[in-house]
Design brief:
about 270 residues, disordered N terminus, D-Maltodextrin-Binding Protein, domain 2, alpha/beta, two-stranded parallel sheet
């Protein structure tokens, strides 16, 4: 009788375990939330709430739905991180990466989703990238410019979103062309009839499809490595963040989040060090 009861108890335990795994979000199974050090929680969420900057200026990473809800890979990563730390998550909305960066510097958010850039690395403890996207150029349809290499010429004005990753990159790398910065590079380009506009591939391609008077140049001028980050000096939290991102990539969580948010052209970054 005792052996029968033991067998029944075992079967119930197996069934319960299977049910738990089935209802646990992808990539979060077996993460041992209770084993996370209080020092990690204090480092990443010192106020007791995980305050996260969400950049709605990059549709690859985050989107605001018609009902006001936020979605996208960065939103999913933020919510899963809060679940693991066992703290509430406060999503702060920004319309540009630069504004999110400034909020982190001012101590208004704990976590940011930004492209890895030397200028920002002086203020941010970055994880390895979780997503790779491309920076591309768009030009008027009748422009004599035919390739990425031809953009950096005297007399060429390139519109960019101020303080974006590609603004910072082009500021360092351009030798002849001139950058024109604004809240919306595409609007500047169209309004002032500039020679080119730089931006993230997906929204640039979408704009070109709706505007036959422009075209997107083949190839990219940069690879944009999107990462999670926290303020400099939060080393304990930064180490956890690095391991977290690596797990989320390896488990398929990032790939699933991109698929759910209809971003098939974005690539999951390879494992760190590869």
């Amino acid at each position: 009788m005792k052996s029968i009861m033991t067998a029944i108890t075992f079967l119930f335990a197996v069934a319960a375990g299977a049910a738990f795994a089935q209802n646990t979000p992808p990539g979060s199974r077996g993460n041992g939330m209770a084993t996370i050090s209080p020092d990690v929680v204090k480092s990443l969420a010192p106020s007791g709430t995980l305050r996260v900057g969400i950049n709605l200026g990059n549709i690859v990473l985050a989107q605001a739905h018609a009902n006001g809800e936020l979605g996208g890979v960065s939103v999913d990563l933020a919510r899963e991180l809060g679940r693991r730390l066992n703290v509430p998550v406060q999503l702060e909305r920004f319309d540009a990466a630069g504004k999110s960066f400034e909020a982190m510097k001012a101590g208004k958010v704990d976590i940011v989703f930004l492209a890895i850039e030397p200028v920002r690395a002086a203020e941010v403890e970055f994880s390895a990238p979780y997503v790779i996207i491309e920076g591309v150029y768009m030009v008027p349809k009748d422009s004599p410019i035919q390739s990425v290499a031809e953009v950096d010429r005297e007399g060429v004005r390139i519109a960019v979103n101020k303080a974006s990753a590609y603004d910072l990159f082009l500021t360092r790398s351009l030798k002849h062309a001139t950058l024109v910065r604004g809240e919306s590079g595409v609007e500047l380009f169209a309004r002032d009839k500039l020679e080119a506009v730089a931006g993230v591939k997906q929204p640039i391609v979408a704009y070109a499809k709706a505007h036959p008077e422009v075209r997107v140049l083949d190839g990219r001028f940069m690879e944009i490595r999107q990462a999670m980050g926290t303020a400099k000096g939060r080393e304990v939290g930064a180490r956890y963040l690095h391991a977290y991102v690596e797990e989320m990539k390896a488990s398929g969580f990032v790939a699933d989040a991109l698929k759910r948010s209809n971003q098939p052209d974005a690539s999951v970054a390879p494992p760190a060090g590869s």
